[in-house]
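retry 2 of 3: previous attempt timed out while embedding glutamine. Reduced batch size to 1 and resubmitted. Inputs unchanged:
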Amino acid sequence: MSSAEITDQVDRRLAALYERQLHIELTDDARFYESGRGYHPIGETVENQDEFAIAIARVDGTLTSVGDADVSFALQSVSKVFAYGLALEDHGREHVLTRVGVEPSGDAYNSIVFDERHNRPYNPMVNAGALVTSDLVRGADTAEKIKRLRGSLCDYADSDRLGVDRQTLQSELRTADRNRATAYLMRAHGMIEGDVEDTLQTYLSQCSVKVTCSELAMMGSTLANGGINPVTGRVCLPRERVRDVLSVMYTCGMYDFAGEWAYEVGVPAKSGVSGAILCVIPGKLGIAVFSPGLDEYGNSIRGVRVCQEISEGLGLHVFATEAEDVLLGCVPPALG
Ligand code: GLN
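retry 2 succeeded.
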């Protein structure tokens, strides 16, 4: 199948998938996260709750999107992926492993439970682990760490427009007591050093960087492309480290839903409480979905359903048989 034919197929199937998912009601126990406020009470109407976008970026740089793909939202926990990459690049795999593990915690993203046997947080995809990786990012001071993180995110997205949203950051800082408690506890155990407020500032700044769904898909395609941005050719992460990042996304990226996700969807992914999900299909695609409305795990309800459908329709599960892999094969995609 030619590249143009694949693009055409992806476009058509994506439009059909979008329409179908748009009209499926979210469950009425959906929760909505708003920075500065935390979760809205169930049933309350939230201003942006109907925003919905899907974007797919292929490793040849082609981007396909539907819905509100140019609306920006805070990266929130999706940023943990890229901060982990930077920490790995700064310190090497062995050192980072001594500071943060790679075990799924089986607990909620904001759990204050640590891997006591190794005196480190369980993994970099939960808040405790992400606080450690932010702390590890090199920089003379907090401002420099944040600048490096922002620069890295811009490189992945091929956009110099990405920046920390001040309002989001201020409200995140105001309501960060659980993260603050986690950080203090970790400092008491010697898991982090230095000033807790500085660590929070770095971590919450990366969470407050705003991106569009299209930009996020491009960031995913950079990881899918072995760490090289498909449009600019810039190396955003050494190839050997991409493997490390994708491994923890696969096992830990969807919090305490990670096992079921691996079983049902079967692709490395990361969610954030703003309603974003990023999937990486190595050698093929970055997929980003944005839809506020979260399930009990803090994952986007519509986002999970969309990814499930795309994975099934295109045979993207890592353990799918070759016959199921219809994306680049000769069988037309079954999506839609
Ligand atoms: N800023 C949020 C927090 O640290 C991000 C959490 C998330 O997206 N799961 O609590």
